[in-house]
DNA 3'-5' helicase (Sulfurovum xiamenensis), 688 residues
Amino acid sequence: METILNALNPSQREAVEHIDGPMLILAGAGSGKTKTLTTRLAYLVGEVGIDPANTLTLTFTNKAAAEMRERALKLMPEKVSYPPLLCTFHKFGLLFLKFHIEKLGRSNAFVIIDSDDKKRLLRSIAKELKVDLNISFIASEISKYKNSLLSPEVVLEKAELPDYKQIANIYVKYQENIEENNLVDFDDLLMLTYKILSENDALRKETSQRYQYIMVDEYQDTNELQFQLLELLSSEHNNLCVVGDDDQSIYGWRGANIRNILEFANNFETCKTVKLETNYRSTEPILNAANTLIEHNSTRLGKKLTSHKGAGQEVKLLHSLDESMEAKAIAHEVQKLLDEGVDPNEIAVLYRINALSRSLEEGFTKAGLGFKLIGGMRFYERAEIKDLISYLRVLSNPHDDFSLIRIINKPKRGIGKASIEKLQKAAFDAKISLFEYIKKSVHGEFPAVLSKKITTALEKLVEDITLLQEALENELGNFITLFEERIKLKDHYAGMVDGFDRILNIDEFYGYFRDAVLKNPDLTLDEFLNDISLQSDQDQVEEDTITIMSIHAAKGLEFEHLFVIGLEEEFFPLLGEGSNMEEERRLGYVAITRAKSDLTLCYVDSRFYKGRRKMIDKSRFLGEAGLIQDTSLKITKSSAFKKGDLVKHKIFGIGRVQAANKSGKEYKLLINFGGNKKEILSSFVQSI
Ligand code: ATP
Ligand code: MG
C-alpha cells in the first residue's frame, strides 16, 4: 500500500489520506486530480478497510468512468469483495430508478429515450399543437426546466411570452406522453432520482448511509440538480470529496453551474481544500500557452501551475489555405508520426464544432489513414442502427408507437405513409396502441381500413413480432440469430448507394449484441437497450487508430501528439448568439492542456461553411496564448512538398514540382511552370 502513496506528491498524498469530512481538490489541468481520486478510492478500500459497496465515485462520461475503474482496480488488493460503484451520474440514476421508480407509481420496465428520440417526440407534439419553433430550442428549454426541478404545471403557470407559453404546452404534453409510455429521458434519470430521494426521507437516509464515501471528478461541470442530489446523498455523513478545475468548466451552455465549485467550501463548512500545483502532463511551452491564454479570463479563482516535465518543443502553428489543405497537411504529419512508430492511441485531432470534422474525415480517408471519430455522427444515431434499436424496443414494449412507426415499413412491406396515418387514427379512436390495433385488426376484430395486400403484410409483421417475443424468453444469443433471419434489414439497405457501409454497421451491431450476451449471460433485452441509450458520445468501439473528437469529448484525456483545428475567429472562439467568450477560452485551455509534448494549432484562411466559402481571421486565442507575436518564425507552412505536387505561385501561376529539397524550415523547390523551370522557396507557393 505504501507503494501507491509513493507515486504521489505531498499534496496529492495529503488528499488521499484525508478520510472523513468534505474535501475540495482544486487544481489546474494535468495536476493529477483524477489520479488522486482513483488512488484515494483504492486507499479507502485497500488500506482503510472501507467496504467497496459503501463507496460511490461519479464522473461525466462512460469512457472516463471506465478508465478510472481500470486505474483504481489496478491499485487495489487482488480480491476486492465487490467492485466499487464508479460510473456516470446518469448511470447512477438508472441503477437507482431500477430499484425505486415504483415510489412514483411507475414500473421499472421503463425505456430510456435518447436526445434523438426526444426530438422526434417533440416534433410530433409541436406539429399536433401547430407550434412552429425550433425543435432543438424546445428540447433544451425543457431540459433546463427539468434540471431546475420545474414541473410542466409550474412552467405553464409562469410562462408569459407567447413562445414560452407554447413551449410550456409542449412540455405538458411531452411529459404526459413519456409517462404514459413509461419512458425516461436523460434529464429524468437525475430529476426522478432526486424527486424520490427528497420525498422519501427514510430512503434518503438509507441511501446516504449506504454510500459512505462519495467522490466526484470534473466537479466544475455539475449543474444545480446534480449538486442537490449530491447534497442528499451525502446528507448523513458529509463525506463528499470533489475534484475539479474552474478553468475547465465547459458545460455552462448545458446548465453547469460554476458556482458549485466556487462555493463548495462555503456550502460544506468543515471543508478541507487541497491545491495541486504541479502539472505532470505537459511540457513547459504547452503549459505556458495554456496559462497565458486562460489569464485573459476575469472570473476565475486563479491558480499556480508549474510543469514537472520542463522544457520541450515549441507549440507549432499550422497555417493552411483552406480546410482541405489543412486536412491534407495534418494527415501528412500524422502519417510521419506513424511511420516513426508512434502509438496511434497517442495521436488526436480536436475540433470545436462538429461541422469541422467532415473535411478531416475526407482528408484522412483520401490519405488512407484509419481513424475513429468520436462525437460526430454517433454509431447509435445512424439510421440503420436506430432501426434495429426500434425493432428491439417494439419487442420489449409493443405499445411503443414511435418505434413501431419507424420500422413498420422497413424492410419494405408496402405500408406507405397514408396507410400508417390511417392506422394511427384508427388506433387513436379505439384508444389502444398502434400495435394492439394492428394485431386485433388482422385477427378481424376491427373492420378492415386497408387493402387486402397491406393486411397480409401486417399479418406477417405481427407474426414476426410475436415469434421474436417468444424467443426472448430463451437464450438471447439464439434470439438475435432468429431476429436476423426474420427481419431482413440488410436487404432493405443493400440496394442503397451507401448500402455497403450500412450493412457493415448492422453486422457490427449484431456482433455487439452477441458480445454483450457472452459477457453477461443473464442480460435482458431491457438492460441491453438501456445500456446503449446511456452510451455517451465518448463511447465507441476501441480500435488502435488515431482519434478525431470534439474538445468537449476530450475532457480529462491526454495525448502525446495533439492537433487542434479551426483556430479562427467565429469557429474558435465561436462567436454569435449564445456564445460566451470566457467559456470559449476555457475550452481553449482544455484543448491545449490535452497535449503532453507535441501540440499543433491549426488555422486556415477560408472555410466552406453553411453553403458558402468565407474568408476568416485567425483566432484571437493564438495571440492571447502568446503564440503569434513572431509569426514568421513559428508558423510552419502547411504542407511538405514532394515531386509531382501541383503548386500555385502568385506570379508564375500553376506548376508541377520536379524536385523538393528540405532547406531549414522550408523546402527548396524546382518547379516546372508550363516549361518554364524555376527554383523557388516553398513559402512562396501554395499546394493545390
Ligand atoms: P485534467 O484536469 O485534464 O482532468 P488531472 O488533473 O485529472 O487532469 P491526471 O489525468 O490525473 O490529471 O494526471 C495527468 C498526468 O499526470 C497523468 O498521466 C498522470 O499519470 C500523471 N501524474 C499525476 N500525478 C503524478 C505524480 N505525482 N507523479 C507522476 N505522474 C503523475
Ligand atoms: Mg482529470
About this structure: Residues 176 and 677 are 75 Å apart (CA to CA). The chain is about 45% helix and 15% strand. The two ends are 59 Å apart (CA to CA). Residues 8-9, 12, 27, 29-35, 245, 248, 280-281, 556, 558, 593 surround adenosine-5'-triphosphate (ligand 1) (CB under 6 Å).
